[in-house]
Design brief:
The structure holds two protein chains of two kinds.
Chain A lengths: L4 H6 L8 H10 L6 H16 L15 H42 L3 H14 L18 H11 L10 H27 L3 H10 L5 H5 L4 H13 L3 H14 L7 H4 L1
Chain B lengths: L3 E5 L5 E5 L27 H9 L3 H23 L2 H17 L10 H19 L24 H4 L2 H14 L2 H13 L3 H8 L3 H22 L1
Antiparallel strand pairs in B: 1-2
Helix pairs in contact in B: 1-2, 2-3, 2-4, 2-7, 3-4, 4-8, 6-9, 7-9, 8-9
Chain lengths: ~260, ~220
């Protein structure tokens, strides 16, 4: 290929040039690459294009292979759905996490809340007036029940209780228990109008301890009452004591439960 | 760049319209082959064809190959003086072009880019070769051809004989001078572009080309 007009236009103007030599060379230089080399190069060029992933912007070029078009279409369609699917997955995950947290929060036990609500109810409940000389919020059983208790305390029904100290404690607690029961009965007799309010107050006792202690023996009730008093939760202790007396009317109430 | 385009809107209707710069042809459909503003493969320049091939147009590569395969092969043949080696380097050069198509940018002429790849492949060939027949001759090692100047002088003046003589003289040139001459003849490169291909400055490329022409002329003159 000899120098032509285009070359001269691009050249700076001082390029060595010999038209005769150029012509003679063109006449002599006619070698061409072997055909098998042509085939190999063209095949390699096609293979490279077929294996190349192309973008959608290359759609203006002609002469594309049909299979390459299909590959390009599939890749493009897949890429189009990647972002929406990812967003949907993130949304579903977020909603699931929030829902699980809310359900876990609702089912968690909150004894303090129940106790505080019960304490509020107890505070609001009318407190029966105290009788002079009587332990606060003490109730005394009826005389018939007192007799039965005395018999129980002195060991008539419990022959195994032979400890003198225990007998003395039982004997000492019996009059106190009888006194408390008498006062409670007097209170009940003296103010029948307050009985409904008291019942209301007793029913307004915290629901949390009563169900838990419903199947427990009286001693457990006492432990709970004493525990509440030690914590300074006198109202709750009183409410629990009232509930105890309802459930165990024949059971003597020790003095320490009442103060 | 062609000044007009062939507009083919049907099998029988052909129009020539002004070519508004670089254009592309959409070979889809049996009749609507080309629309206004688009060029056929033969009318596109090398840079456009290479960009089209980069985009996946295999036909563009076919056209590029058709245009430059002869010149590139002869360049490698002249430099290596070994047909087998030339064929191998020729194929390697095109493979390098195919592999590098994704990064191709038309910052220079396509032929400069193509022959630069071939030159680099030649340098690798020289390095691998020991001192053998394929090694290019030294600058001053020029043997006189075994020609009988005295028999049938009219034959000597035949163009075919002259052409053959040029080839013989070309083989005796130093590799750098031969390369400069062949690049000018086979790829239509300017001195600046020859310098870019061979990795030298413009003056060195120009000097090599000048010496090559001078020696070829001198050899022809002696033979005539």
């Amino acid at each position: 290929m000899a120098m032509n007009e285009n070359t001269r236009n691009r050249d700076s103007g001082d390029t060595p040039l010999d038209p005769e030599l150029a012509g003679l060379y063109r006449a002599a230089a006619r070698e061409e690459p072997p055909q098998h080399v042509d085939a190999a190069v063209l095949a390699a060029a096609r293979r490279a294009v077929r294996s190349q992933p192309r973008s959608l912007d290359e759609s203006t070029a002609g002469g594309r292979e049909p299979r390459a078009d299909a590959v390009r279409h599939a890749a493009g369609a897949g890429r189009r759905w990647q972002v929406p699917l990812a967003l949907a997955a993130v949304l579903v995950l977020s909603v699931s996490i929030v829902t699980l947290q809310q359900e876990g929060g609702d089912s968690a036990p909150t004894p303090s809340r129940g106790e505080s609500a019960g304490a509020v109810e107890l505070r609001d409940a009318p407190i029966p007036p105290e009788e002079p000389g009587a332990p606060p919020l003490a109730r005394t059983p009826a005389p018939e029940r007192q007799q039965e208790r005395l018999r129980a305390e002195t060991g008539a029904e419990h022959p195994a209780r032979s400890d003198p100290a225990e007998n003395r404690r039982s004997a000492a607690s019996a009059p106190a228990a009888s006194r408390a029961e008498e006062q409670g009965s007097a209170t009940d007799r003296a103010s029948p109008s307050t009985r409904p309010e008291k019942a209301l107050a007793e029913r307004a006792a915290p629901a949390a301890p009563a169900p838990l202690l419903a199947v427990e023996p009286p001693e457990k009730w006492g432990e709970k009452i004493l525990d509440l008093r030690q914590q300074g939760r006198a109202a709750e202790a009183d409410a629990l004591l009232a509930e105890f007396r309802q459930r165990f009317p024949d059971h003597a109430v020790p003095e320490e439960w009442t103060r | 760049m062609p000044s007009t385009l062939t507009l083919r809107d049907s099998a029988d209707s052909v129009q020539r319209v002004p070519a508004p710069g670089l254009a592309r042809c959409r070979p889809d459909g049996p009749r609507a082959y080309c629309v206004a503003g688009m060029a056929t493969l033969a009318e596109r320049d090398d840079e456009t064809l290479m960009l089209d091939y980069r985009a996946g147009d295999v036909a563009a590569f076919d056209e590029l190959y058709r245009r430059h395969k002869g010149g590139l092969y002869r360049y490698l043949l002249r430099q290596s003086r070994d047909a087998a080696a030339a064929a191998e380097m020729f194929q390697d050069t095109w493979m390098n072009l195919v592999r590098a198509r994704a990064n191709y940018q038309p910052t220079a002429k396509f032929t400069t880019y193509l022959y630069r790849l071939a030159h680099n492949r030649l340098v690798d060939h020289y390095r691998r070769q020991a001192h053998g027949a394929s090694v290019p001759l030294a600058e001053d090692a020029m043997e006189e051809p075994a020609l009988n100047r005295h028999e049938q002088p009219e034959v000597r003046y035949e163009r075919k004989a002259l052409a053959a003589r040029v080839l013989e003289l070309l083989e005796r040139l130093p590799a750098e001078q031969r390369e400069a001459f062949v690049l000018q003849q086979e790829s239509d490169l300017t001195v600046e572009e020859i310098a870019a291909v061979t990795g030298v400055n413009r003056e060195t490329a120009k000097s090599r080309l000048r010496y090559a022409l001078a020696k070829l002329r001198a050899g022809l003159s002696e033979w005539r």
